[in-house]
Specification:
single chain, 280 residues, alpha/beta, Rossmann fold, 7-stranded mixed beta sheet, two-stranded antiparallel sheet, 9 strands, globular, binds S-adenosylmethionine
């Protein structure tokens, strides 16, 4: 879209109406999905400039733009998992073992924050923590929660998906604690103060290990960042998750930062922590 046309659209059509238009455009399945996604986001780009976290929340909530690739046939199954998530889960197992925990028998409960369709939970259930009887996940994208639930029921999975905003985590899980709590690719959609709060909340619900994957800063180890910075291409956030964890009272037991290296479309920045009181 030409910059002048964009300016006119932004000036004459209020954002509230353009948000509804974006949802409407996205429902036009006769249009090519790339085109739908492009138009749906182009007409609300100014929203990201005004309030970037609400913009991401809006896109995920309505399954727009980048959310479109989250479909059961594209995401469930080992071969469909993103390579970096495979690294992450195998690192998680290794670091639990280093803490003297047997992941196969001792991990009984898991919480996946921002779980999408629940494909990581399903893989965890079958291959990572086979003794886990509680596999909870939440996501703001109602479409993926509904599709995921249907798929998981068809394979008699124990995974339990809840449609909820991660910023209101306490409303859905109360004071429940889980052996393992993790968030893969979620903090990048929150501003620093919001991400800080979420990390602290997740820490409160962890009894054994809390783990995150985040966007890696391309040049500087994230642990050295004094403040979060945005990735211009998609207005997501690069955080110092290490600091967020230690500020929340956790102890980092392992981490991995691989700078600008891209694997299967993702960067690598993992942090594994234990709540101070759970150190063995
Ligand atoms: C990049 S995807 C990652 C999905 C999955 N965790 C993974 O590692 O493949 C980000 C996920 O976070 C979810 N999400 C974004 N903002 C959220 C929020 N405020 N509350 C709950 N889920 C959210 C999205 O709907 C999406 O499923």
């Amino acid at each position: 879209m030409k910059p002048r046309a964009k300016k006119l659209i932004y000036a004459f059509i209020p954002l509230t109406i353009r948000k509804w238009l974006a949802i409407l455009i996205n429902r036009q399945t006769w249009l090519d999905s790339d085109k739908r996604g492009w138009w749906a986001t182009q007409i609300i780009v100014d929203f990201a400039e005004k309030d970037v976290s609400s913009y991401h929340k809006f896109l995920w909530r309505h399954h727009l733009s980048y959310a479109e690739s989250y479909e059961t046939n594209l995401r469930f199954g080992y071969d469909n998992l993103n390579e970096t998530r495979k690294f992450f889960l195998s690192d998680l197992v290794e670091h639990l073992k280093k803490q003297g925990i047997n992941p196969e028998s001792e991990i009984k409960s898991v919480l996946d924050v921002g779980c999408s369709l629940g494909y990581l939970l399903r893989y965890i259930e079958t291959d990572v923590f086979p003794n886990a009887s509680v596999l909870d996940g939440n996501d703001i994208d109602k479409y993926t929660i509904e599709q995921g639930k249907e798929f998981l029921a068809s394979c008699k999975s124990k995974a339990n998906l809840i449609h909820a905003d991660m910023e209101a985590l306490e409303n859905i899980i109360g004071d429940k604690k889980y052996d393992v709590v993790f968030g893969a690719g979620i903090l990048l959609y929150l501003k620093q103060d919001q991400a800080n709060k979420l990390v602290a909340k997740m820490m409160n619900h962890t009894s054994t290990m809390l783990a995150f994957t985040g966007l890696a800063h391309p040049d500087l180890d994230n642990a050295k960042l004094e403040t979060s910075v945005t990735r211009e291409s998609d207005k997501t956030w690069i955080h110092n998750i290490d600091k967020m964890i230690t500020d929340a009272g956790g102890k980092i037991v392992a981490r991995r930062w691989e700078g600008n290296k891209m694997v299967d479309g993702n960067t690598i920045y993992f942090v594994f922590a234990v709540p101070a009181q759970s150190l063995r």
